[in-house]
Amino acid sequence: MSTHVPVVVIGGGQAGLSVSWYLGRSGIEHLVVEAETAVHAWADKRWDNFTLVTPNWHCRLPGYTYTGPDPDGFMTRDEVVAWLRGWLETFDAPLVEHTTVTRLCRIDGNRFELTLDGPDGADTVTCDQAVIATGGYPLPVIPPFAPALDPGVHQIHSEQYFNPEQLPDGAVLVVGTGQSGTQIAEDLHLAGRQVHLAVGNAPRVARTYRGRDCMTWLADMGLYDTPTQEYPGGRAAQEKTNHYVTGRDGGRDIDLRAFALDGMKLYGMLTDGKDSTLRFAPTLTESLDKADAVYNSICGDIDRYIDARGIDAPPPSRYEPVWTPPEDPAELDLAAAGITSIIWAIGYRPDYRWIEASAFDGAGRPMQTRGITEVPGLSFIGLPWMHTWGSGRFLGIDRDARYVAEHIVASLGENRPRLAAAQ
User: Fold this and answer.
1) Is position 284 within any domain?
2) Cβ-based neighbours of 239, under 8 Å, separated by 6 or more
3) Which pairs with CB-CB distance under 8 Å and at least 24 residues apart come from 274-279?
4) Beta bridge partners of 165
5) Domain residues for 307?
6) DSSP alpha helices (H): ranges in 213-270?
């Protein structure tokens, strides 16, 4: 490893490696530093029955697209890992794995110094351009009252869940109804476990509507390509949890009301707890109603798109509730309910404390435009809503990476190393 590299990409997942693909194509000397392995997040942080929730045709990376037999299907975890490894075989990325960047700071006014912690110990490297590709929210969130709960109850975060067999016998409480929480609750439910589910404010969407996958309709409607500043609903829409749905068994809706009819126990927002007692806000009815309203609203948007273009499609429909909560439970006794495990599926938070640069807002989020910050030479890739709703997804990574790489090439200017014309 040289002591100075023009560009260092921190993070060797699909986003960071997409920037690397473009830099290599332009002849830019660079280094990609990855704390684990290139496919670690997919291979080691997804449960056994995980599937994509976006159709396979969304899977696009630089120079590489899904070409399998089921473009409208949903790859499993292992299929995604195999697909990514196939992409990695198409180019030679300067990737250093099992090495963590523990500090990034500005030196000499126009260079960055990175402190690396790898298998052979600590090292440093300097660069002119640094690309942060560590993901938008790397730290799992656990509520502050979790340590006060009965120590006999097994607690894990959703990223640590793989299958029902890893949990102690007994009922399971899943907290959170984003994409991970609802799908993990379904996984446990299908395995015959008694599931209790604390319902949050995530919206939901139909899997298929009027003959096509809803996400295919939304792509045709341009929703994944609309710049963030033009997106309907503005910042409020961007702050919402992604709509819950599943690609399991070919894809289907996730209907929490139907789960309740089948024996799953639903509660409102979990507010606090101690020992064996948990308390909930009276939000269950409202949360279910709002999720269904979003579901039907999206269907209405698709209807208007179909009508405006005269598309031949099956007739419209709307979701009608199959179950209504008889009450909003206020408390839950873990011991009395036989709950032996809790899975926290309430998200992640940012952690950029290792970056010494004035590039973050009061909440610790990067201040950037299409990945480019006001700090010369510092950029980001792979953030949710970095440019569009498609940012951070397979569908939008290629475009975002190309933009960031082009900015880097232009910034290096006449001093750029071995620059070749982009093809």
Assistant:
1) yes
2) none
3) 274/145, 274/148, 274/149, 275/148, 275/149, 275/150, 276/149, 276/150, 276/153, 276/333, 276/334, 276/335, 276/336, 277/331, 277/332, 277/333, 277/334, 278/149, 278/173, 278/331, 278/332, 278/334, 279/330, 279/331
4) none
5) 140-344
6) 214-220, 234-239, 256-261
Q: Which CATH number covers residue 397? A: 3.50.50.60
Of the residues 344, 371, 392, which one is the last residue of a structural domain?
344
Q: Is residue 423 part of a domain?
A: no
Question: In the block, which residue shows the tokens 């009508």?
Answer: 307
Instruction: Please count the helices (runs of H) and the strands (runs of E) in the chain.
Output: 9, 22
Q: How far is residue 211's CA from residue 313's CA, in Å, rounded to a whole number?
A: 7
| Residues 298 and 195 placed together within one structural domain of the fold | yes
Residues 144, 285 within the same domain: yes
In a domain, 179, yes or no: yes
The one-digit pLDDT tens for each residue of the chain (423 residues) are 558 999 999 999 999 999 999 999 999 999 999 999 999 999 999 999 999 999 999 999 999 999 999 999 999 999 999 999 999 999 999 999 999 999 999 998 789 999 999 998 899 999 999 999 998 777 899 999 999 999 999 999 999 999 999 999 999 999 999 999 999 999 999 999 999 999 999 999 999 999 999 999 999 999 999 888 887 776 666 666 789 999 999 999 999 999 999 999 999 999 999 999 999 999 999 999 999 999 999 999 999 999 999 999 999 999 999 999 999 999 999 999 999 999 999 998 888 999 999 999 988 889 999 999 999 999 999 998 898 988 988 999 999 999 999 999 999 984 554 433 333
Closest CA to 114 of 39, 28, 6: 6
Rounded CA-CA distance 118/1 in Å is 12
Say how many domains are in the chain.
2
* d(C-alpha 92, C-alpha 202), whole Å: 40
Beta strands of 195-317 (E only): which ranges? Answer: 195-198, 208-209, 212-213, 265-267, 270-274, 277-280
pTM confidence score: 0.93
